[in-house]
Amino acid sequence: MKLNKIALALFAITAAPLAANAGVTISPLLLGYHYSEGADDEQRELLENYNGSGENFYKENGLYTGAALGIELTPSTQFQVEYGVSNTDAISSLGRTLDTEQEMISGNFLIGFEEFSGYTDNAFKPYALVGAGQSKIEIEDASGNEVTSTKDTIGNLGLGAMYRINDALSLRGEARAIHNFDQNWWEGMALAGLEVVLGGHLAPTVAVPPMEEPNVVTPPIVVVESDLDSDGDGVPDSIDACPGTPMNVVVDERGCPVPVDITDELKMELRVFFDNDKSAIKNQYKPEIAKVAEKMREYPNSTARVEGHASKTGPSARYNQRLSEARAVAVKSMLTNEFGIAPNRLSTVGYGYDQPIADNNTEEGRAMNRRVYAIITGDKTMTVEQTKDMVVQ
Questions:
Q1: Which of 18, 77, 185, 390 is the most exposed place for a label (fewest CB within 10 A)?
Q2: What are the b/e assignments for 325-338, b being 16+ CB within 10 Å?
Q3: How far apart are the C-alpha atoms of 22 and 244, rounded to whole Å?
Q4: Helix 286-298 vs helix 317-337: angle between axes, to the nearest 10 degrees?
């Protein structure tokens, strides 16, 4: 056994601050039996690959010694860092017996069953163990020369129990399975030891019972009929001239809704496009003109300014001017004759080709310029019941 490594591990553990917070655990000495013969075939194959001389080895079972330092995460669960060494013999296929040392360092979670069943005063505390770490196996000959070695990743699974002697000392026993991921073999271990807790174990959180309200007898409230306000508008029923007012409505001193005038403004646009050298309205635009007429009937004081435009084609500017005016008049006439809008609410103007919105040198641009553009504006005033969330200008 390499005692200097064990001594170094024990020194690091016992050097933990003595003034540590509650829940710091130390297992200064863990003793166990390390079982590895179940992996004979795999070990022989592994060590043959390392040796390369035709001489094969497998490791016998042996004594395990270790130490651990941990911290309690909850009153029944802790995380531990454990270091341990197993010293035994390696048997050679040529009949030689060689010294073998297996070092293991791992981090393990010890999860108490009381984490799920609830905390008790029972001194017996079973737990499950799960963790991972590293295993290093070295085989040396009688002269201390290394014959072969391997360093692998391991995983730990186990079941154990603590027996609490008092709040500072516990006896520990455990059975553990160890899986070597790199070499794909299993090992086993049974160990026991003493665990010391610095500062005492963490205490379970105790639920605080709710405070009981004092048993105060509240005298009944006597409601005078004249003070009743059935609709909740702030005016007693005895003087409420408008009972049943909705909750959000503003009322006057008589309990009646307060009227308020609000103005609703109208602003909409109309665009109608025409074929070349034409002022006839295509059927596809009649529904849009009908919508304008419907809004103008809804807003009786609304007016419309109808502007006619032309593309830069035709025999002369004068001709295009008249064509743009004819297009504006065509829209006005449809609003008046088909939809009953008064002529004095509509004005027309023609701009010829002076206000293009697209390039007159392309067919697409000229098609966009053959248009009527109308702006419809107006407003209407309505009297409604004022509500509490209404902003009155």
A1: 18
A2: bbbbbbbbebbbee
A3: 68
A4: 60
Among 33-37, 171-175, 323-327, 373-377, the range scoring the smallest mean pLDDT is 33-37
As a CATH number, domain 3-198 is 2.40.160.20
Domains 3-198 and 259-385 share a fold: no
Q: What is d(CA 84, CA 133) in angstroms, rounded to the nearest whole number?
A: 11
Contact indicator for 176, 157 with CB cutoff of 8 Å: yes
pLDDT of 228-245, one tens digit each? Answer: 888 888 888 888 889 888
CA distances from 87 to 21, 197, 222, 227 (A): 36, 29, 91, 95
What global pTM score does this model have?
Answer: 0.48
Sheet bearing 346-350, strands edge to edge: 259-273, 371-385, 303-308, 346-350
Average pLDDT over residues 322-331: 96
Task: Output the six-digit token pair for 263.
Answer: 């103005």
Give residue 222's pLDDT: 57
Q: Answer left, alpha or beta for residue 149, where phi above 0 means left and psi between -120 and 50 means alpha.
A: beta
Mean pLDDT computed over every residue of the chain = 84
